[in-house]
User: What shape does this take?
Amino acid sequence: MSRNIVIIGSGFAGMMAALGASRLRHEKGVSPDELAITVVSPAPEMVIRPRLYERNPEQMVAPLAELFAATDIDHRQGSVETIDSAASTITVVAADGASATLPYDRLVLAAGSDGFAPPIPGLAEFGFAATQLDEAVALDRHLHALAEKPASAARNTVVVGGAGFTGLEFATEMPGRLSEILGEDADIRVIIVDRSEHVAPAMGAEPRPFIEERLRALGVETRLNVGIAALDKGGVTLGDGERIETSTVIWSGGMRASPLTAQLPAERDNLGRIVVEPDLRVPEAPHIFATGDTARARTDAAGNYAAMSCQHARRLGAFAGHNAAADLLGEPTLPYDQPVYVTCLDLGPDAAIFTRGWDSQVQITGAQAKAVKKEINEVWIYPPAAERTAAYENVLAARTIDF
Assistant: This one.
């Protein structure tokens, strides 16, 4: 009797979950007819979301069809609308609106996350986000369209809401990107707004001097201890009353897990992530494993939890896929762990900062760190070659190798 694993999502966690399940299936000599693996997503591709702050965001997509074919993974095109954990089925809606029910023996929820947009007046109408591919493409088109407008303070000014990782990478990219579009002589302003006392508040004190120096060198201004109160067609008003004329507001105020997590009978954290068992199983729905940005998963004995990042999503996915297959094949599941945590924050055209540990100990900065960031963005986070051995080696590396 054939059994099946269904994986929702083809992002970093979903791709690695599919490969992790396929690897164990192959290792145990089980045929795809006996254990089917199906990935459900709008297209057989992975958006390289950590690169959406860069130029040409429409190019930040990696095809997966050949990789899936090489590893006997099926792809079902569509979006998941509902999960019925009691019946062990999901409802898939195709691009033409047709819906179908898909049963599963084990489900891996790797549906990712979306940007969090608070109810700030005017944000939905006049703000831009870039956490999804279509958003990043829309922002890029808007930036290029600025060249057709007459020079003004509003045209030449970009306000970035949020001084976290994403906000800083967008802000430090903007001076060079706008100079290319508007000309080197354009009087460009980039302003970061955040309610926190410092930029990159999650990184702590050690990296801060270098980050602040880079912002000064690039001419990026900051407005801290204050939030954006309202947006309109001509600009933003801050909570302290300051008015900034701008045509471009980029919101990067945090992420929330896929709303599909709310359909499961499970405990969730304030980001909407499901609190999972050590093997990533959903306690209240034992045939479901949550992974990537949908899972609140402990990384180590010190009590740290995985961040919403591709660094954690890849490893989480590799464990979740392995465990879903192991559960069906009568093999022991493996407890997820990821004791090493690093960050590499892009800070403009010629600099970055690389830190290690949850306390962000600075390892390298400047051009050397920029070279590491370039390697991460252009090589390390991309899918493996569309070949079985390379794919399975990639899964094993994700499960066992730390930076």
